[in-house]
Amino acid sequence: MVWKTIARHLAGGHAPAAKPDAALVAALRARLTAAAARRLGRSLAIRHVPAGSCNGCELELRATQNLIYDLTQYGLSFTPSPRHADILLITGVAGRNMLEAVRQTRAAMPDPVFVIAIGDCAVDGGVFKGSPMVSGGAEAILPVDLVVAGCPPAPAQIIEGLLAMLEAHAG
Amino acid sequence: MRLCTPEEWQSYKGAFIALWTDSAHAYALYQPAELLAVALQDGAYPALPAPGAAWFQRLAHDLNGHVAAGAADTRPAIEHFCAPDGRSAWPDFAPPQGEGVHQLSVGPVHAAIIEPGNFRFTVCGEQVLKLEARLGYAHKGTLGLMRGKSPRLAARFAARISGDATVAHSLAFAQAAEAALGLQPPGRAVYLRAVMAELERITNHASDIGAIAGDAGFAFLDARFAAQRERLCVAAAAAFGHRLMMDCVIPGGVAGDIATGGAAAVLAALDGLEAELPGLTRVFEDYASLQDRLVGTGVIPAELAAAYAAGGYTGRASGQAMDARCSPGYAPYDGLSLETPVETDGDVAARIRIRLAEITASVRLIRVLLDSLPDDAIAVAPPAGDGMGLGVAESFRGPVWAWLRLTGGAIADIFIADGSALLWPLLEHAATTGILADFPLINKSINASYSAVDL
């Protein structure tokens, strides 16, 4: 079938360029997006940015990688490079001194990007809410797809949150 | 506290710990717990000659606008975006000099899951010639939030000065508030605090020793120590209701009694660690490829450690036998025989050896403490009063100090000095004794806190 089509084109010269149907393109795009979400949904790379935390959330994030929780078994892993990352994971209060770094990290990531706020500080500033140095959570910088509250959230809670997001997007 | 003249202030000879200012005075803290004050003149005070004072003078300028007259280092500490255009006011790093010398900028977003900070390396080939650390990225305005609050309310902020040393910081803060109010916490609370503090020390040592091996590409030790850390965190949650024991130490005592079965959970986790530790230590000592990365790496000479009065395992690995639990000392350690291991090599391997020895010592301490828990109350309510208080606790990485002044039961002024401020300059030096690839090992082996100095 393919060979016949190729042969016909070779014999008949160039076929006139047809304008694709706009509705068809839209439908295809929707199907492609769903497929991409399914594919991305099971194996995501995470870029973590500490935006003014106390180091508590970092300890528990590291613990998600230990033998007991083994984050990679779910297809999730941390990556040093924002270029390879699908998830921007923010901890901390979104302090004034980290705003530019968060923005630059997001800009270096290819779309689509899921933004996740881990810990009470990243949810809304936590106990530091109201400080002039604090923007009040990740949402103050970027639209956030998922929040995991806790001070700090336990590794099991963090993984639960990540898996819930995967389920929702894998649909 | 001793109010002194500018001349006395500048000429005082002692091991410098910290410096801060309030609305009327500048304060300087020396070992073991000597507090000097000098009156501010038009918002200025004489700069101190101690090398460790530089960071605190920069910080006092950024926090309160007070100037250290005659200070050589006037770079911003935490104010990164105060220029009129909203961009960084940080002065340019000195350009590299010489053929083949170039600079690398790392951070504030690092490759690993750690806190934010910017490192400017000047390198020639692989050799690091100079490291300049730019901190302040984790600044949250914590001290400002603590002012005006009662000690009990402000304890939540003290617990979040540095998450890995949350017990030690809560303890230093609580002891400062208790000193200001003349409050004596009950014996049971004092013992439970020490159990938590030692558990925190073991947990962090285990986690960091593994992580150093991991940074050297030795995944086995990292995996085993991380598993041990996890068991300790689970035990801490079973005993005290929180994996990191955050908000468990409060002014006047502890927030809750140890849970039923909590002591058994802690002891079981310690037994598990003790059973595996000799084998893991042997692996550390026997693998030549691992030792090759650790021995002679990141050397801090004893003279330098002494000049900065470095505490914790960083100081103790470089010949400084300082431990806040012994000097100035606080309860309940005065009643327990406490050994402070000291080494003189000053390299990554020595710091690991100190930490391994401290794990064993802390395991013993917890067993003694849990075995002899007094049966009295767990807390007394702090009264509303006035006073000034100084408190100290030995965190896993070194001493942490809290100073506060209470007026009518509320905090009028406060400063918290983590020992990390004196460790950062030592890291800058230690990095220059190795190649760039050794830096993660050196950094992790010192593990100075970012959040605790950024405040």
Question: What does this molecule look like?
Answer:
- With 171 residues, chain A is an alpha/beta fold.
- Helices cover 41% and strands 13% of the residues of chain A.
- Chain A has six helices and five strands.
- Chain A has helices at 2-12, 22-42, 56-63, 99-107, 120-124, 155-170; strands spanning 44-50, 76-78, 87-91, 114-118, 146-148.
- In chain A, β3, α4 (99-107) and β4 (114-118) form a beta-alpha-beta unit.
- The model of chain A is unreliable at 13-17 (pLDDT under 50).
- Chain B is of the alpha+beta class and 455 residues long.
- Helices cover 43% and strands 17% of the residues of chain B.
- In chain B, α6 (187-215) packs antiparallel against α13, α8 (262-286) packs antiparallel against α13 (348-371) and α14 (420-431) packs antiparallel against α15.
- The mean pLDDT of chain B is 92.
- At the A-B interface, β1, α3 and α4 of A face α3 and α7 of B.
Features:
heterodimer, A: 171 residues, alpha/beta, Rossmann fold, 5 strands, B: 455 residues, alpha+beta, Cytochrome-c3 Hydrogenase, chain B, 2 domains, four-stranded mixed beta sheet, three-stranded antiparallel beta sheet, 16 helices, 43% helix, globular
Quick check: average pLDDT of chain A? Answer: 82
SSE-based structural type of chain A: alpha/beta
Q: What name is given to the CATH topology of chain A?
A: Rossmann fold
What is the overall number of helices of chain A?
6
Our measurement of the CA-to-CA distance between the termini of chain B, rounded to an integer number of angstroms, reads 24 Å
The tally of strands of chain A reads 5
**Biggest beta-sheet profile of chain A:** 5 strands, parallel
Mean pLDDT score of chain B: 92
Q: Which stretches of chain A of 5+ consecutive residues score pLDDT under 50?
A: 13-17
How many strand units of chain B?
14
- Order of adjacent strands in the largest pleated sheet of chain A: 2-1-3-4-5
Radius of gyration of chain B: 22 Å
CATH topology descriptor of the largest domain in chain B:
Cytochrome-c3 Hydrogenase, chain B
CATH superfamily membership of the largest domain in chain B: Cytochrome-c3 Hydrogenase, chain B
Give the SSE order of chain B as H and E letters.
Answer: EHEEEEHEEEEHHHHHEEHHHHHHEEEHHH
- What does the overall shape of chain A look like? globular
Note the main sheet of chain B.
Answer: 4 strands, mixed
CATH architecture of the largest domain in chain B: Orthogonal Bundle
**Chain oligomer state:** heterodimer
Question: Which percent bin holds the helix content of chain B?
Answer: 40-55%
* CATH class call of the largest domain in chain B: Mainly Alpha
